[in-house]
Amino acid sequence: MTTASPIAGTGFVMALPDMVRADLLARGKRRYFDRGQIIQQRGDPAREFWYVESGSVQIGRYGRDGRLTLFALIGTGETFGELAFLGEFPRTVDAIAGSDCQLIRIGDKELQSLMDSDPAVTRLLLKTMALTVQQAFNLIESSRNLSVPQRLAQALLQLCGDQQDGARIMATQQDLADLVGVSRVSLGKALAGLEAAGMIEPGYGFVTVRDSSSLRAVIGG
Fold first, then answer.
1. β-strands 101-107, 29-33: how paired?
2. In the list 9, 34, 38, 97, which could disulfide-bond 78, CB 3.0-4.6 Å?
3. φ and ψ of 6, to 5 deg
């Protein structure tokens, strides 16, 4: 697996007001995917977008050699596929279950019924999309000058979603190395440093966040 510049999940649904978010998710349909299962493929028609209720999803593109270039690792509370869905163009990336995961599928029927229930929702959805896309660009720009431990801390906090201390992130060291854009050795050193400081606790195929406040301080440092 190779990597490009990491692009975070937009958090589109999480940016909606509580009542609107709950209503939208209640209209969606839950789907379960096993680790490694294909969720969507590049070129597929975009008939829905997805909210990650639990687990993680790898976003990237498979090359001719079968290797995946990883763009993002989407965690709990984040969404993916909404740009192609709303823009009505084919999928531009592949999505693979990074772990066993539970997703909520939101299609035309679910979104239209929400917009019909309140005309103000349409403008709110457009405003939220614009905001989350801008946040993604800001994240890419701010990441350029960060050290490896800072980029790792940033990635771990993103993957926490709406969780904080005690959150278990289902990602291997190779997943994280690909996401941050460094070698497995460099990633291991950064993990060891954060573990020694009591901020995280690595496990087999996962990382537990112990001190999210300190991780934020690492980024700001």
1. antiparallel
2. 9
3. -70, 135
